[in-house]
């Protein structure tokens, strides 16, 4: 960072204490904007950076619901609208016990650049709650979602703020959330929430979109090096929405997926994960350690991560800061060629330095996992026009968008003397788009 951007960062740390993930996300962006600020001095005069790093709005609220024994339970809900310069706030909801205001702010901040890169007119937001859906009955999840929406509904709408899913929030939760929204507002405003089930206005491919999109991005990265996914080995972390759909598309494109994980350990199948078995286990809401009961040559390794398994391709798709410097060194030594972040900010800054120094193709989450929000925009488009696109048409749109994001990152990095640096390309391209809109909208 330059002394100027370091001063801005210090001030953000002072004004937002105890939010290390937010500080980390801001530092990464500020660190790559140096070539832009040198060229566009007027952006500093307009205090664009300071304005961009302050959320437009932050809502925190009490969520009270009753468990299956009639006992009242208490959680804290959040929704942060970070930037509406390009369109209504857009970003998912995370239900996980680790969620704090700082988590939501870092995710919403990342979303600014991601959403700008899609070129689909989306502002940025994120939300969630410290609710843990693990081990909760269907009825408990439904009552929690209804209680959460009973407050959230007044802050959202198809032209204001459009939530979607994230960790712990999938089609089931979005159905309960939308049901309550519809009940309270007396309106079937399908475009208020995306990632819905198909029967209530959801788009084909939205469920698969983030994982498929990461894989399309990897395909484009390898193509610039005259390579393909065919015959490659891959490891992923997580075994949720992003990980399982990335695994499926990697498999379709000829790669062998050797491992995935959850918060308790890693599942390693040296002959390639059986995706049908994985699907069966996940559908039954069982843990990954059930897999070796059905595929005896596979092993579940409690308390480990997948990063010491030799592979060509890695896709961290679980959570933030899950892959550190020592993991990056292990992957690099074992022959890694490319890594695309499926999760948001899964690699620590020191890990990213290792990949950069080793010349490994590295795609940041704000570019590589943008397929989810891009397909959400396609869902909004279908909801507004009351059209229904079929699966192949929607998938084709997604593949095109991911290739365009890839090319934008690469071209922008080149133009700013950072050839091959997808992180710099993503941050600079996203920033310039939002800065232009903020300038056009006037000072506010
Ligand atoms: N769902 C989307 O469309 C979308 C879009 C963009 C980015 N993301 C990001 O992708 C990541 C995964 O989201 P998802 O939608 O697949 O969630 P999910 O709830 O479907 O799955 C999360 C997975 O991560 C695992 N996990 C959680 N904490 C872990 C830990 N500490 N160590 C190891 N594994 C852990 C869980 O066991 C689960 O398998 C998140 O960072 C999310 O922000 C999701």
TrEMBL record:
One annotated GO molecular function: glutamate dehydrogenase (NADP+) activity
Lineage top rank: taxon: Bacteria
InterPro entries: Aminoacid_DH-like_N_sf, Glu/Leu/Phe/Val/Trp_DH, Glu/Leu/Phe/Val/Trp_DH_C, Glu/Leu/Phe/Val/Trp_DH_dimer, Glu_DH, Glu_Leu_Phe_Val_DH, NAD(P)-bd_dom_sf
Presence of the UniProt keyword Oxidoreductase in the record: yes
SUPFAM superfamilies in the record: Aminoacid dehydrogenase-like, N-terminal domain, NAD(P)-binding Rossmann-fold domains
Subunit-structure text: Homohexamer.
Family that this chain belongs to: Belongs to the Glu/Leu/Phe/Val dehydrogenases family.
Entry protein name: Glutamate dehydrogenase
Organism in which the protein naturally occurs: Amycolatopsis samaneae
Gene transcribed to yield this protein: gdhA
